[in-house]
Amino acid sequence: QVQLVESGGGLVQAGGSLRLSCTASGGTFGTRHMGWFRQAPGKEREFVAAISWTGGITNYADSVKGRFTISRDNNKNMLWLQMSMLKPEDAGRYYCAAQPAGRGPLTATRYQYASWGQGTQVTVSS
């Protein structure tokens, strides 16, 4: 299993930017597709973005396309989510997640992710 720790959340005004980080340890980060999900109070956890283990393929939820960018550095065991033009509806707890090592295509389905961090809170004021 890989352990994941998110950081970088906080309070930002609408229209502002934040960069979330996810530090991985204890597993084969470099062979895992990775994703970001978020969950607002009273709502289901939803897909935000995903990146293949090579970094060559990315996928985004329609609601964040053109505003968020997912990236990774396998040498540093790091995953990032650059968020720009933030909206109040982007607020929530953001989770870093890893698919099982060496298995399957990149997916937006949260049940296909085997490892999760504890999340970092993002608040967007209007």
Task: Describe this protein's structure.
With 126 residues, the chain is an all-beta fold. Helix content is 0%, strand content 47%. The chain is built from no helices and eleven strands. It has strands at residues 3-7, 10-13, 18-25, 34-39, 46-51, 58-60, 68-73, 78-83, 92-98, 115-116, 120-125. The strands form two sheets. Strands 2, 4, 5, 6, 9, 10 and 11 form a seven-stranded mixed beta sheet that branches. It starts with a strand and ends with a strand. The model has no long low-confidence stretch (mean pLDDT 96).
Question: Features of this protein?
Answer:
mainly beta, 7-stranded mixed β-sheet, 11 strands, 0% helix, 47% strand, globular
Rg result: 13 Å
Spans where pLDDT lies below 50 across 5 or more residues: none
Shape: globular
- N- to C-terminal distance: 39 Å
Largest sheet: 7 strands, mixed
What share of the residues lie within helices?
under 10%
Order of helices and strands: EEEEEEEEEEE
Beta-strand segment tally: 11
Percentage of residues in DSSP E strands: over 45%
Based on secondary structure, the structural category is mainly beta
Number of helical regions: 0
What is the residue-mean pLDDT, rounded to a whole number? Answer: 96
